[in-house]
Design brief:
The protein has 7 helices and no strands. It has helices at about 10-25, 30-45, 50-60, 70-90, 115-130, 135-155, 160-185. It is globular, with a radius of gyration of 18 Å.
Length: about 190
């Protein structure tokens, strides 16, 4: 039995997604750029860099907010749970593979691809930290963008995976701030 064909507009979107993937992934690879992108992807794993930045901001603050970490932990936990436990198994999209001609740097992953957990956590945390320290927001968002793009460059995700993660993370970050503000500001 044949698998059902996607709707023509979805098929067009997936073709564009694959073309954009090869534009980013198949372009200029050097050992220095590969190492740099592996570094950004690595520090983005499990939100490590975001928690370190959160600790730095916490100690940098002159007035200690006892609920400072609540939205950060909330955004990280919800991002991980929603992406890894619900969406990836539900959508079950395969990652880009060598058989498609992808350049995979740092080994092939055996988990599903959609949405990107790195992008989701990066943007959820960037939103929270930008709210805590607005004058540094451009650094937080730039870091989130580079971490997200590194996933395409390294051959781990398609652009749609990353875009979905960005949008999901953006929403989770804002929702975490709203919920924590309502709970802890009473």
């Amino acid at each position: 039995q044949q698998a059902p064909h996607p709707h023509p507009s979805m098929e067009t979107l997936l073709v564009l997604d694959r073309q954009l993937f090869f534009l980013i992934n198949g372009s200029y690879h050097t050992s220095f750029l590969d190492w740099t992108m592996l570094l950004f992807s690595g520090v983005g794993t499990a939100g490590i860099i975001w928690f370190l930045l959160g600790v730095w901001l916490f100690f940098k603050e002159e007035t200690k907010d006892k609920w400072f970490f609540a939205p950060l932990i909330g955004a990280g936990a919800v991002s991980w749970f929603l992406v890894e436990m619900i969406l990836k198994p539900l959508v079950a999209r395969s990652r880009p593979g060598l058989e498609l001609g992808a350049i995979i740097v740092g080994g092939q992953s055996d988990t599903f691809s959609f949405p990107s957990g790195h992008a989701t956590i990066a943007f959820a945390m960037a939103v929270v930290l930008a709210n805590k320290e607005p004058k540094w927001k451009w650094i937080f968002y730039l870091l989130a963008v580079v971490i997200s793009l590194s996933r395409i460059y390294l051959g781990k995700h398609y652009p749609l995976d990353v875009l979905a993660g960005v949008l999901l993370g953006w929403g989770i970050g804002h929702l975490s701030l709203v919920i924590c503000y309502r709970i802890f500001k009473r």
